[in-house]
Amino acid sequence: MNTIDFGRTADDYSRHRAGFPDELMDRLAALGIGGPGRDVVDLGTGTGSLARLFALRGGAVTGVDPATALLDKARLLDARAGVEVRYVAGAAEGTGLPDESADVVSAGQCWHWFRAAEATAEVRRLLRPGGHVVIAHFDWLPVPGNVVAATEALILRHNPAWALAGGTGLHPRWLTDLRQGGFTGIETFSFDLDVPYSHLDWVGRIRASAGVAASLDPAAVGVFSAELTALLADRFPGDPLEVPHRVWAVTARRPAGSAAGQSGPGPA
């Protein structure tokens, strides 16, 4: 695949991409994660979708992302929401933030872009003993014949190297990453919901994906957008579309008695 640069998608990303639903925060709050006065670091924050939800629940949030164009959009969206998040340009594998400075470290829709072993070690370094890590996803669901499946087929026609088609919204490999990093109390939950998208917003949301504007040249993106617009008008004329999504999250804790750089036991 071509080099992925989400900074090229900043306008579409901020305007058309649905953020995590508030129900995710209800589920996390029931587990004692987040809340007023908690220090949160959100890795791969993008336009701040997850960071903003933690801030709206009273957290003191720092968002980290290498794409400064996305962070600029995040600040604008925060202002509209009436919250303030501190943003830092940096990588998940090395944030430059202080040791043991967070009660929660989160990563929304981005863990697959990280070098897992390094990111896991950085999460452990950032967390205070007993602190929580949250890895969350908000994925569209391709079902034979639905608009997602048709959209993914079109992406693959334009970008055969795109490797994220056919997902189930479940990410069991991240549990192994956390186990190998020495985290305990690993739990998962998921729930499904339909997200309404106008035709215009669905085309914009797909442009903002890794397989389209983040990796194709502008001329190819324009051709793709025109073809997706025509496909929707022909095969899925209802507007808005009801697009099935799955929210999935894994939570875990840094053991209370462990040192920041200490890993868990390896295989026997």
Automatic annotation (TrEMBL):
SUPFAM superfamilies: S-adenosyl-L-methionine-dependent methyltransferases
Record carries keyword Chaperone: no
Highest taxon, organism lineage: Bacteria
Signal peptide: none
Residues that span the membrane, as ranges: none
Name of a matching Pfam family: Methyltransf_11
CDD domains from the UniProt entry: AdoMet_MTases
Keyword Methyltransferase: yes
Annotated Methyltransferase type domain residues: 41-135
Biological process according to GO: methylation
Name of the protein in question: SAM-dependent methyltransferase
Source species of the chain: Actinoplanes digitatis
